[in-house]
Specification:
The protein is α+β, with helices and mostly antiparallel strands. The chain contains 26 helices and 25 strands. It has a 6-stranded mixed β-sheet. The chain has a 6-stranded mixed β-sheet with strand order 15-20-19-16-17-18, with helices on both faces. The protein has a 5-stranded mixed β-sheet with strand order 21-25-24-22-23, with no helix packed on it.
């Protein structure tokens, strides 16, 4: 990625023309800020004992605050600009003098610049430079502007033609100098800062003197690598500043990380921790656990693996944890009945297949593959009881499936109650920084945080991915429901199943199941909204997914197969032949022995549901027998064909 080291600052000259006073604005860039020893207490003391004490003496009423010459100027300009907002300096003075409150915050840097604002009567704002995208400007708002106000958790519309301070992605401050953004607010992790210092009523030279005082004050409390600034006014409405390569790299990691933590993601615990670590460039240990309970993986699993792949490509260590112990009795999540216990040998055989299949997405050579039987099988009963003593029954019974079972009068095994504890303890053994899971595993993974904390580890954060709805368009993708698309499904079957999904899932599948870029996603979403035939979008989706798992050639063949069988209502060119045996001519025997259907129970279900055709005629008789002297074309469901000879 090319590093652009220039950052442009600008102000719309149409705004400058409306301001009826001398006006200048300074932008100060500070990098690698480090608080000096005992400086936090010194800043707070100066703010409370000197600045706030003086303000309480100078101002006693809201009227006296309004008579402040700087406040008066800003009120006048806000009216001229058509902005319905109060002045930030006015709010601070009222808070201290009239409401008799302190403005001391938890962050020393915020206390520092608030103190400077009040001492010099210069409205100012501080922004995390790492989270600013591209150039910045003071300008009129436009329709596409987005803004997340301080301490809010969602973006809000910005009144068109209001005045904003914005970067190339979003608004940093709305209503000129009033509403601060939450996205770029100063945090304890902030190292690089952009300050905006207002100079209403001041010439460029006067504001430069104020910036010099700001720098002098800052040196008392902070060490820093760089201090640079530009001042804009009517004679100089645009200026550039050089940014260090380190800052630009952090800004690029920020943009990349925001995308990484949003696509297909339902929730992040704790979002700010994860984002800050990624901006810093920290390499994380990322856990993903799976209990081998079936022989196949499907696209519902792939939602997690594709996210893990994104992290793996960025150099993070993925720990692929096989539940060789926990899979023997199984996770109770979403289960209405107690699972049947499994033999260790069967679990390990399934695990081998899982690792082979996950290699279609993840680089297996770079995985750290672990088995939780390696520690649980070695634990004594006392060891397990000690871990169990760190949890309560009430906490474990908070899970919704247990509540439903109790209401239905169904049993809950003791081993099911402790499952979340065991899953949480896996993170202690692995020392994971982060885990990537489906939303249904959030409760289990949250149990790791207190366990890690008590053992001196930093509690893991959690990325919970949206659960993928299956081909029925209603329920979570699952083998047991038959609404799944398997990694090992034939390319033609994958293609056909994807073409069968409801239209409302098209964008969900593009987002969660493909590697299509965000730019392409936006284009596809626009096409979908504009009325493009959903079938055409599904064909593209099917080709993307089949190519990922089976290659582009297989995807092209699968597309041709689909066109032949379903669009042209013809038989496929290649159909598997099955030679009938005289002692195995029953429909169930043929379907299973040929491999067309996996089991007798699946074959019965297919027939009972009307999904079997023989020579284009629906067959509902499970006792149907083939005549050895005839040839038959068997169609199972929409996509599977067999020639019986």
């Amino acid at each position: 990625m090319t590093l652009i080291l220039d950052m442009k600052f600008s102000i719309d000259t149409n705004i400058l023309a409306k301001i009826p006073h001398e006006y200048s604005v300074a932008f100060v860039v500070l990098t690698d800020l480090e608080l000096r020893k005992d400086a936090a207490a010194a800043i707070e003391k100066e703010l409370t004992d000197l600045t706030e004490a003086r303000i309480r003496m100078d101002y006693t009423t809201e009227g006296s605050v309004m008579n402040n010459s700087v406040v008066t100027k800003y009120v006048e300009v806000l009216k001229v600009l058509g902005i319905e907002a109060t002045v930030s300096l006015q709010n601070l003075l009222n808070m201290i003098a009239v409401k008799k409150k302190t403005i001391v915050m938890g962050d020393p840097l915020i206390n520092f610049y608030n103190n400077f604002v009040l001492k010099r009567e210069l409205p100012a704002g501080g922004y995390d430079l790492d989270r600013i995208v591209g150039d910045v400007s003071i300008r009129y708002a436009v329709k596409i502007d987005s803004f997340m106000q301080l301490n809010k958790d969602s973006y809000q519309p910005v009144a068109e033609n209001s005045i904003v301070f914005a970067d190339q992605l979003e608004v940093l401050c709305a209503d000129w100098v009033y509403k601060q953004s939450d996205t770029q607010k100063i945090r304890p992790t902030t190292k690089n800062v952009l300050f905006r210092i207002e100079g209403l009523g001041k010439t460029k030279k006067e504001l430069k003197d104020e910036v010099d005082l700001f720098k002098s004050d800052l040196k008392k409390f902070y060490k820093y690598d760089d201090f640079d600034f530009v001042i804009l006014d009517s004679d100089n409405p645009t200026e550039n500043l050089k940014l260090s390569k380190k800052v630009v790299q952090r800004q690029e990691r920020y943009q990349d990380s925001v995308s990484l933590l949003s696509r297909g993601v339902s929730n992040v615990v704790v979002y700010e921790d994860v984002l800050s670590s990624l901006i810093e460039g920290k390499k994380l240990r990322i856990k993903h656990g799976v209990d081998p309970t079936t022989k196949d993986l499907h696209l519902g699993y792939a939602v997690n693996y594709l996210k893990l792949k994104e992290f793996q490509d960025r150099g993070h260590q993925i720990i692929f944890l096989i539940g060789s112990f926990t899979a023997r009795f199984g996770d109770p999540t979403d289960k209405g009945e107690t699972r049947t216990m499994k033999d260790k040998k069967i679990v390990m055989e399934m695990a081998k297949n899982y690792i082979l299949q996950v290699g279609r997405i993840l680089n297996v050579k770079k995985l750290e593959i672990r088995y939780n039987g390696d520690w649980f099988d070695k634990m004594s009963a006392e060891d397990l009881l000690r871990i169990m003593s760190e949890f309560t029954v009430a906490r474990m019974l908070e899970r919704d499936m247990f509540d439903k079972r109790m209401k239905d009068g169904k049993e809950i095994g003791l081993h099911e109650i402790v499952y979340p504890m065991l899953q949480g303890y896996d993170s202690v053994e692995i020392e994971s920084d982060l885990t990537v899971i489906g939303t249904d595993q959030t409760f289990n993974e949250l149990q790791a945080r207190p366990l890690q904390n008590r053992r001196g580890q930093t509690p893991q954060n959690i990325i919970a991915m949206e659960l993928l709805v299956g081909t029925d368009g209603k329920m979570k993708m699952s083998q047991s429901l038959g609404n799944y698309i398997g990694f090992d499904d034939a390319p033609e079957d994958k293609f056909g199943k994807i073409m069968s999904i409801p239209d409302h899932l098209i964008m969900t599948y593009f987002i969660s199941c493909t590697r299509v870029s965000q730019f392409e996603l936006d284009q596809i979403a626009a096409e979908f909204k504009s009325g493009t035939n959903p079938r055409d979008l599904k064909i593209r989706l099917a080709k993307e997914i089949v190519s990922m798992y089976d290659g582009e050639k297989a995807a092209a063949t699968a597309e041709q197969h689909f066109a032949t069988v379903f669009q042209n209502k013809e038989l496929p060119d290649e159909i598997q032949n099955y030679t009938l045996l005289q002692d195995k001519n029953g429909i169930l025997e043929v379907l299973v022995d040929s491999g067309l259907i996996a089991s007798n129970s699946d074959a019965r279900r297919l027939i009972n549901q009307g999904g079997l055709k023989i020579n284009s005629e629906k067959v509902t008789d499970i006792n149907f027998k083939f005549n050895p002297n005839e040839e038959y074309i068997v169609q199972a469901g929409k996509r599977k064909f067999l020639r019986v000879i």
